[in-house]
Amino acid sequence: MRFGVLGPVEVLKGNVSLDLGPRQRRLLLVRLLIEDGRPVSQHTLCRDLWPTDRPTGAASSVRAHISRLRAVLDPVRQGRSAMLVSGPAGYALKVPREARDTTLFEESVSRAREALRNRQLPAARQEIDAALGLWRGEALAEAAEHDFAIRERTRLDGALQDAKELQAAVLVQQGETEPAIDVAEGLVLKAPLRETSWALLMRALYAAGRPVEALRQYERFRDMLATELGLDPSPQLRDLHTAILRHDVVVLGTPPTASSGTTLSPGLPPAPDFSAACVHPDPGPAAATPFMGRGEQTAQLVGLLSAAAAGRPQWAVVNGEQGYGKTRLVEELSARAAAAGFTVARTKGGQALSGNRGVFQTCPTVQLLDALRQDGTDSAQDEVAQKDPLGTVVHELTQAPTLCVVDDLDQAPQGFHRLLRRLAKVVREAPVLFVCTLRNPDAPVSSMLLADLALLGATWLTLEPLTVDDVAELLAARGEDVPPEEAAALHRRAEGHPFALAELLKLPPGRRIGPQAQVPAALRNILHARLVELPDPARTMLTYAAADGAWLDVGLLADVQGLAPDQLLPLIDAAVTARVLVWDADPGAAGTGRYRLPELPRDVVLSTQTPSSRQLRHAALARELAGRDDADPARLARHLRAAGPMAPAAAPAPSP
C-alpha cells in the first residue's frame, strides 16, 4: 500500500486507487499522515478539521470517519487495527516510511545529488526525473487553506524548489540548455528572491550562447533584491556576473567532453554545491543574440573608446525610454572595452555593481571607488580615500584605460551628480570614457550635470524605436525567412520597442501576429502594472476604447460614458502618461494628430474583461452609433455582431 500527498491525497493498493470518501475524511487522513505516526487527540482533530463553524456533532463525525478509514485501509484485520490505532493520546496512523511518496521523493533527490557530486550525469538525470515525476500537483492539496498543514507544505515546497534547481543543474551539464532555461525561469517566478535559482538561470543562458541575457537577469535580480530587502547580491553571484562579463571559463567551468557528452573535464575544480558545479561551454560569436538597429550608436561609442585610450577623457549620454536597449548597448560596449584591456566600472542609480558595500553604502565616492577597484576591498575603510576622496578617484581613473558606465543617471542621488560634475571639471588628462544612461533628460536632478557635460562637448545619443528594416534584419539574422508584410506586422505589434520585440520573438511564429497572436507573459505583466496604476475611470474608458478599435473616437467615448469631452481628456492624458495610449502626430499639420491604443495594450485590456463585459461594451457602442446619421454601417455592424445576445433590439440588423 502506498500513500501519496504530493498532490491530492491518494492511497494505492497495487495499482488501484482506494476510495477514501468525502473531503472531510480525506482531510482527516492528511492530518494523520503529517504527524508521521504520532497520535493526535480528538479535540485537536475537531479543531483542525473545522477551524470555524464547528458542528455540534464534530466528535461523533471524527469517530465515524476514523471507523470508515479503518475499513478502507485495513479491511481484513482481525481485532484491533495495527495501522489506524487509537489510544489515550488520540488517533495515530502507522505507515512505513517507504510507503510514502514524500520519502521516495526525498531519497531520489538525495541519490541524484550524490550522483551529480560524483559526475555521474545519466544516473543523476534518471533519479531527479523520477523524483519530480512523483508530484501530481500541489502538496497536501486538500489542506491548502488549513493552518495545520502550513509547516509541512512549506517544507515540501522548498524541497521541490531544491529538486528543480538540481534538475536545471543536470540539464546544463548535459548540454540541454533550453530545457534548463525553462526550468530556471519557472524557479525565479516561483521564488523571485531565491539567489540560487537566479544563478542557475544566468549559467543556463550563458551556456546557451546568450551572455547578454544572462547579464540582464543579474540586473533584474539585483534591482529586485535592493527594492524588496535593501540588500545586494552575494559575493558569489557578483563573481558569476563578472565572470560572464569577461567570459572567464575558470569561474564558469569547461564544457563536457565530446566523446561521451556526460563526462566532465577533469580540470573542473570541485564545487561546494550542485549549483556552482554547472559546466558551461564558451559560446562562439555566431551563437550570440543578434544586436540590431543600434549600429550607428555603437560605432560612435567605440570611436569614443579609441579617443579615450589616447588619453583624452570622453563623456557620452545615452537617452531612451525603458526597454529601448540602453542597457544592452552599454553591455555590448563593456564587452568590447574589456576585450581591449579597459577596466570596466559600472554603477546603477549611483550604486556600485561591484565591491562589497552595495546598497548599504550611500557615499558617492565610495560607490565609484568600489566600482573602479572590483577587488572586493572595502573602500569605506581606505584611509587615503577618507583624507582625499576626489583625488583617490582621479588616481584610480588614471591608472589604466577605463570605461565608467553610469546606468540610470536620473535615479542617482544628488551627491552622485555633484561628484560627476567635479570629475568633469578636474579630469582633463586621463584614458577614461564616462557613459551615462537616463530615461528622463528633463529630470531636475540631472539638469546641472547635463548642462556641464554639454559645455564639455559630450556626445548625446537618443535611442529611437527600431525600424521595419531593423526588424527584417533581425529576423534574417535569426535565420527566419519571412515576407516583408510579416516583418511590418511584427514591427507594428511591438511598436518598434526592442524589449517588446525580443519577447515576441520568443513565441512560436504563429503566435506572434495574426488571429492566434499571444501577449508574452513579461509584456502582459508590465502592461497590467501600468493599468493598475490608472484611476478607475481611465481603465473604464480604455475598455470602451479597446472594444471600438485602435483609434480613439473621443466624442463617441465621451457620449457612451455620459461624459463631456473635457471630462474625458484628463483620463486620456493619464493613459498617455502611463504609456498605454500614444499620440500619433500628423506630419502634415503641426499640432494635429490622433490618440491610438496600440495592439499589445489593447489585447491586454480586452483580456481583463469577461465575455459578457465585452458584449456590454459593444452593445453600448452600437446604441450610440445607431443614433448617429454619419455612422459607418460596417463599424456599427461589427459592434452588433460582437455584442451577441446583448445587441440592442432596436438597432438595425448587421449586413450579412
UniProtKB/TrEMBL annotation:
Write down the InterPro entries for this protein, in alphabetical order.
Answer: AAA_16, AfsR-DnrI-RedD_regulator, BTAD, OmpR/PhoB-type_DNA-bd, P-loop_NTPase, Sig_transdc_resp-reg_C-effctor, TPR-like_helical_dom_sf, WH-like_DNA-bd_sf
Q: Tell me which Gene3D superfamilies the record gives.
A: P-loop containing nucleotide triphosphate hydrolases, Tetratricopeptide repeat domain, Winged helix-like DNA-binding domain superfamily/Winged helix DNA-binding domain
GO: which molecular function terms? DNA binding
Entry keywords, A to Z: DNA-binding, Transcription, Transcription regulation, Two-component regulatory system
CDD domains in UniProt? BTAD (cd15831)
Q: Kindly give the Pfam families that the UniProt entry links to this protein.
A: AAA_16 (PF13191), BTAD (PF03704), Trans_reg_C (PF00486)
Q: Name one GO biological process term.
A: phosphorelay signal transduction system
Domain OmpR/PhoB-type residue range list:
1-95
Claim: Protease is one of the keywords in the record: no
Q: Which domain of life is it from?
A: Bacteria
Q: Tell me the DNA-binding residue spans.
A: 1-95
Q: Where is the signal peptide?
A: none
Keyword Magnesium part of the UniProt annotation: no
Q: Which family does it belong to?
A: Belongs to the AfsR/DnrI/RedD regulatory family.
Q: Which PANTHER family match?
A: TRANSCRIPTIONAL REGULATOR REDD, TRANSCRIPTIONAL REGULATOR REDD-RELATED
Q: What is this protein called?
A: Transcriptional regulator
